[in-house]
Amino acid sequence: MDKIYMNELAFYGYHGVLPEENRLGQAFQVSLTLGLSTKQAGLSDDVADTVSYADVYETVKEITEKKRFKLIEALAENIAHRVLTDYPLIEEVIVKVIKPNPPIAGHFHSVAVEITRGR
Predict the structure, then answer these.
(1) 48-61 burial string, b = 16+ CB within 10 Å, else e?
(2) 99 has catalytic annotation
(3) 1-116 has which CATH code?
(4) Which family would the database say this protein is a member of (predicted)?
(5) Eight-state DSSP code of residue 50
(6) By the 8 A CB rule, do 90 and 36 touch?
(7) From CA 60, how far away is CA 36, in angstroms rounded?
(8) 8 conformational bin, left if phi > 0, alpha if psi -120 to 50, beta if neither
């Protein structure tokens, strides 16, 4: 299976368990690995034979910026479901949601969840 990588898409959303996260919001990063055959697109050089990553970006943006979830696991699950539903050429999707500045006492770079879903 071929892959299209969409790395560290940046969004601002209102996801989290704590009330401050829902009120103030925060930055999120989403990375996707789209599993599909790109052979026909490679032969035809026609975007109609593949998945437009511009369209996928808009799908992820809509979910991340307009919906609200307590858990980044739920955000990832919703993204995976929608990508598989809206883009039938995609056979598998890996979604990684990164929360760069979670409100947790301590020093670290980020927290993240990664899921793999397929047809």
Answers:
(1) eebbeeeebeebbe
(2) yes
(3) 3.30.1130.10
(4) Belongs to the DHNA family.
(5) S
(6) yes
(7) 18
(8) left
- In angstroms, rounded to a whole number, what is the distance separating the alpha carbons of residues 4 and 53? 8
- How long is the chain? 119
How far is residue 98's CA from residue 111's CA, in Å, rounded to a whole number?
A: 6
Structure-token match 């307590």, residue found: 70
Contact in structure between 56 and 31 (CB atoms under 8 Å): no
Please write the tens of the pLDDT for every residue from 22-39.
899 999 999 999 999 999
For residues 102 and 111, the answer to whether their CB atoms sit within 8 Å is yes
Cβ-based neighbours of 50, under 8 Å, separated by 6 or more: 4, 36, 38, 40, 41, 89
Predicted confidence at residue 109, as pLDDT, reads 83
**0.90 surpassed by pTM:** yes
Q: Using 50, 70 and 90 to split pLDDT, how confident is the model at 108?
A: confident
Q: Which of 66, 70, 96, 99 is catalytic?
A: 99
User: How many whole angstroms separate alpha carbon 64 and alpha carbon 87?
Assistant: 18
